[in-house]
Amino acid sequence: MPVRSVEVDGFTWNIHDEGAGPSVVLCHGFPGLGYSYRHQIETLAAAGYRAVAPDMPGYGGTDRPAAIEEYTNIAVADRLVRLLDALGIDEAVFVGHDFGAPAAWTTALRHTDRVAGLVLLAVPYAPDRLPARPTELYAAMARKHFLHLHYFQQPGVAEAELDPRAAEFLARVFFALSGEYRYLDIWEHPSEEHGYLDVLPEAPEFPWGWLDATELEHYASEFSRTGFGGGLSWYRAYDANWEAAAQYEGVSITVPTLFVAGASDPVITMSGPHAFERMRQTVPDLRGIHLLDGAGHFVQMERRHEVDDLLLDFVAELHPRKRSE
User: What is the DSSP string of 214-282?
Assistant: First the structure.
């Protein structure tokens, strides 16, 4: 896949940029890379679209700002729009997975004229803020349970554990969050004196059907080079995001939107029973909610063909001239 660096206002992005035509920007989460959309990039480009999948701030070949404020959804959304400007893109469909989902929907809220449509993977739109600071809630939960959301907060702690064992961690967390494992069982471990590798399950031998040893090595080589600190900064921005989100509480997304997730994704359980109804209320142009049986969190890899088909159908609806060409 074509990969290049783009400097925008002194900030360097590493992006996968393939194809020509209406643009689709694909935003990944933790622990991901632009490479996490390798299947969708290929499919979109072959269908006559331009697929742009950046390493998000803190990851891969993209810059890793030191300030936590640079990892808020607002900061990232504004930076993504400046990337569009540099690439000569007037508007794009934004796809967001995991942390990439709120970054994408914040772009739709702040820069509606630049977002032709929105595809949320794994994380449903949540217009309502938590009742207290996230770190306070996570700390309370961590008194009884191992909670990675809390474990990741202290700078340097998770890095010391995970950076030297990047390949092992990635294999374990990819498996644990997949449809083949019940991730929330991890929470039943006590948090005291436990690291993340102490509670994650052993990963089975490759291939898994949706990830093989060569693909894992690509992730491992990048995170061995950069460490996980940049990606962990997104977790450490929770409180800053919570404060900034007050201005968008209850606000509706007006652009056409599609939601896709694995039916076995723990994020669906964590989102609560009313998440989809709330999304229907605050996303008036919601084109569909698709839960794919047997898939977990990394739905764009675990169910690549189904996600590709749903994505292509959605993008084609927004660009009817493409169907007639």
Answer: HHHHHHHHHHHHH-SHHHHHHHHTHHHHHHHGGGGTTPPP-S-EEEEEETT-HHHHHH-TTHHHHHHHH
Which residue in 55, 63, 98, 265 is the catalytic one? 98
**98 in active site:** yes
Coil/strand/helix, residue 26: strand
The pLDDT tens digits for 98-146 are 999 999 999 999 999 999 999 999 999 999 999 999 999 999 999 999 9
The answer to whether 171 and 203 are in contact (CB under 8 A) is yes
- Given the residues 16, 28, 297, 308, the one annotated as active site: 297
**Secondary structure element (H or E) that encloses residue 315, with its range:** helix 304-318
What pLDDT score does 319 carry?
84
For the cut 60, the answer to whether the pLDDT of residue 321 exceeds it is no
**Would you list the domain boundaries of the chain?**
3-324
Q: What is the CA radius of gyration of the chain?
A: 19
CA–CA gap between residue 215 and residue 38 (Å, rounded): 10
Is CATH 3.40.50.1820 the right assignment for the domain spanning 3-324?
A: yes
**Nearest to 253, CA basis, from 285, 298, 210, 226:** 285
Would residue 113 show up in a list of annotated catalytic residues for this protein? no
* Spatial distance between the Cα atoms of 298 and 175, rounded to a whole number of angstroms: 10
d(CA 61, CA 68): 18
- CA-based nearest residue to 73, from 301, 281, 246, 306: 246
- In angstroms, the CA 183 to CA 298 distance is 13
| pLDDT (mean) for 4-25 | 97
